[in-house]
Amino acid sequence: MPIVTEVEVKSLLTPFHDKIRTVFEGARAEVAVMEAFRRGQGMRDYRYPRTLADSIYDAMANLVGDVFDDENDVSVIFEPQSFKVLFYPRGEQPILARFKKGDEEGRGQNHLTQTVIAFTDPEQCLPGFPKDAACIDITYASDELGTKIEKVLVVYRDGDRVLWSYSISDIGSEMRDSGNVLPFAPIGDRPDSDDQLGALVLPKASDEAEKEPSGE
């Protein structure tokens, strides 16, 4: 994989920042509806933080295809345990992103597998994806109460070491202030099968199932 700078990635992703933020915030809003329903039925809140994180990740997986549906330069790749988003504007550096819950440094949280090692090592190529694609994490952090998305970070790593990162949270705040936040589709309006996503979904060449927990 090529080595990329913060300036390069920010320039390429800037047109997509608002939609990236919408994926995270829309997923958290959907889970908030489920939490309210549980309380309304007299059910207890989730005991473990990882349960909430997994619910948010699943909601993101359901939402991400809708958000980027009209983008010809973006593909969503669904795998058995996770999804990735490939940004490839014509003539520009391809960027392969994972959408994850971040740790205290903004890194995506994972069990250490060979696939994870390859994804976070700039000198390795990730099987089944473009060899010239640079791999990044796009992660979120919740507020202290865990009730909303407080921060969204773009993070570039070399293993466990964060080489650079930047926040797109301010952009989300500006959008909310201006009233231009992108709407997300209600659950009933979303595609029920991969066939309905059409060319948005790219097949993965490798059959290796990646085990990437979104929680803690």
UniProtKB/TrEMBL annotation:
Ranges of compositional bias, category Basic and acidic residues: 205-216
Top-level taxon in the UniProt lineage: Bacteria
Region (Disordered): 186-216
Protein name: Uncharacterized protein
Source organism: Glycocaulis albus
